[in-house]
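queue> holo job accepted (zinc ion)
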Amino acid sequence: MIIKHMKGEIYMDRGVDPDKYICHRCSNDMKRYFYKYHSAYHGTDVVYCLKCVNIGRSDSVTPLRVIHTARKPEPCRYHLDFELSEAQQAASDRIVEALSAHSDMLLYAVTGAGKTEIVFEAISLARRRGMNVAFVSPRIDVVKEVHLRLSGAFRDSDIDLLYTGVKETFEHRFTVCTVHQLYNYIDHFGLIIVDETDAFPMSSDRQLLNAVRRAAAASSTTVLMTATPDRGMIEFAGAENVVTLTRRYHGHDLAIPKVVWQGITKDVNRRRLPAGLEGLITGILEKGRRVLVFVPEISLMEKLQPLVAAKFPGADSVYSGDEERYGKVDSMRNGRTRVLLTTTILERGVTFKNLDVIVVGAETFNSDSLVQICGRTGRKTDDPVGNIWFLAEYNTGHIRRTIRIIKNFNAGRTTL
Ligand SMILES: [Zn+2]
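queue> job finished
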């Protein structure tokens, strides 16, 4: 079933129970996430849910309507430019088995393992059997990138793309969307793949977990994919259903970050480009490479960017609310920009050639973020390693854990 605003049969008389403060669409039951006002038009108080308002309002005066969809198999052929590695193939087989057994799965894979391609066969099989498929991620950037890749591979399939404000829908049979969009589906998908699961607090945000569970059909498979699993994810899939991939698709080791003990805020506040940072960028550019400089806060980035650009003309910066964000990323991709300062918005979902990475204020990042950031380098077969520097004022558990996770991957071990 799919929840639709204006059409379909009534599923619930109202979207929100105004007495108990429960949203029937997203199952939010925390009173502080509801808003109440008096509506002269309705002649009564109206309560609406703030948790899911960005996919359309669920309130106490409007019924929730649903439409039913019939299952429809399709041949669902796909095209891959390369052959899966032995490890990728083994992981792909496990997911196909899980699909037949209707069990869930956790794909614990190093960044750059080629996770997306590993689920192609399961997607194809699910669609051949008439199951609806959803590929979801908490991040809009990832959703867009994945939609492009899937559309390129599954050329005969109509693939929906859904995220806040954007809807490209066919028949909701093969859907790529943000996790929040799942609030609109009930008992619908036979296969749900959650990419970058660590980017939202799956274990602590019950609503999102509920959304995945409720959107899944009675007999279904949910595949969680992550480079940094937590206990909640393992519990979700079941410890016996964890598949690990410690090698990148091209087989090379991950670069180990080099830590430079240097804070930069003092210099930046005096409007000086920190010498250590300048030296690193100079070295990178001299080798004909390009660099992403990760900065913990927008306010610091705004001060740092002009200092970097004064020394390295063309150095740009990007953050999540930046309207020119996609143009700037393109510019980095085609090499017009060679130094790009960024917040964690580019920590995942992007691939640039000949890329090195510098993290300033590394002591303020958590290890999930740091692992993803390191994963930006060495993603291409013709540039399989790359360099990573952490500029940190002091050591932290997260820095140590990041280095341990990466060393373990290189040794073929996982960090659980
Ligand atoms: Zn809601």
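queue> The chain has a mean pLDDT of 92.
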